[in-house]
Design a protein that fits this description.
With 75 residues, the chain is mostly beta strands. Helices cover 11% and strands 43% of the residues. The protein has one helix at residues 43-50; strands at 3-14, 17-28, 58-63, 66-67. A four-stranded antiparallel β-sheet has the order 2-1-3-4, covered by helices on one side. The longest helix has 8 residues, at 43-50. 13% of the residues are buried.
Amino acid sequence: MAGVVQTDGLSKCFGKLRAVNNLKLDVPEGSIYAFLGPNGAGKTTTIKLLMNIIKPTGGSSSVLGVNSGKLDEET
C-alpha cells in the first residue's frame, strides 16, 4: 500500500541555513504521525514543502499520490 505522504531526500536551504536535510518519510494510509521538535527544527518548513507553498532545494514529495510540486491553489 502506498503512503499518503511520502518524501525522498527532501531538502530546503535558506542561504547557508539548511532547514530540512534529506528527509525520507513514508506515512502509510490509516496511520497517525506527529511532527515534534524544538523551534527551528524544520516542522513548518516541511509542511510548506508538502503543500507547495515553498519550493524544495532538493528531493521530492507527494501527498495522496500527487507530486507536491504540482499542487497549486486551483487544484
